[in-house]
Specification:
The chain is mostly helical and 137 residues long. Helix content is 69%, strand content 0%. The radius of gyration is 16 Å and the shape is globular. It starts with 11 loop residues before the first helix and ends with a helix.
Length: 137
C-alpha cells in the first residue's frame, strides 16, 4: 500500500498573505464552528459516531495546544491538558472495549469548554496567527 503524502491546508504564501491584524473572516470561522459542533453532537448522540468526527474534535484541542505553546493563549486551569486526557480516554475505551467513541459527562464539558475558547480566540487573534498555528499543528 502506497503511503499517503502529507499536504498542508495552508501554504507559506497563505501565512504571508493573511491579515496580520484582523481575524479570519466571519464566514470561515462560522463554517469551522458549524462543522466542529456537528461532530461533537454526533459523538454525543449518534449511535455510531465516526473516527473522523473524533479527529476533528482532536484537531481543535491540538490547535489550542499549539496556540498555548506559541504563547498566544493562557491556560491557568489546564483545560487543554484535561481535554487531551479526555480524548485519550475516549479513544482508548473505543479501542479496548470496541464501543462507540464517546466522552463521559465531565469530559464532554471539558471538550465544550475548549471549543468555546477556540471560538473566542478565533474572534480576537489575527488571521496570520491562526494560519501559522494551523500549519504548526
Amino acid at each position: 500500500m502506497k503511503k499517503k503524502k502529507f499536504t498542508y491546508t495552508y501554504s507559506h504564501i497563505d501565512v504571508l498573505m493573511a491579515d496580520p491584524i484582523g481575524p479570519l473572516s466571519h464566514t470561515k470561522r462560522e463554517a469551522q464552528l458549524e462543522l466542529i459542533n456537528a461532530c461533537l453532537r454526533s459523538i454525543e448522540q449518534n449511535p455510531n459516531p465516526t473516527l473522523d468526527q473524533w479527529e476533528i474534535i482532536s484537531d481543535v484541542v491540538n490547535f489550542m495546544e499549539t496556540l498555548l505553546e506559541m504563547g498566544e493563549v493562557q491556560d491557568p486551569d489546564d483545560l487543554i491538558g484535561d481535554a487531551v486526557a479526555a480524548l485519550a480516554k475516549a479513544g482508548n475505551r473505543h479501542i479496548e472495549q470496541n464501543v462507540p467513541i464517546r466522552f463521559d459527562g465531565k469530559d464532554l464539558s471539558t471538550i465544550r469548554g475548549v471549543i468555546e475558547d477556540y471560538a473566542m480566540v478565533g474572534e480576537h487573534l489575527s488571521a496570520r496567527t491562526m494560519i501559522t498555528a494551523h500549519r504548526l499543528t
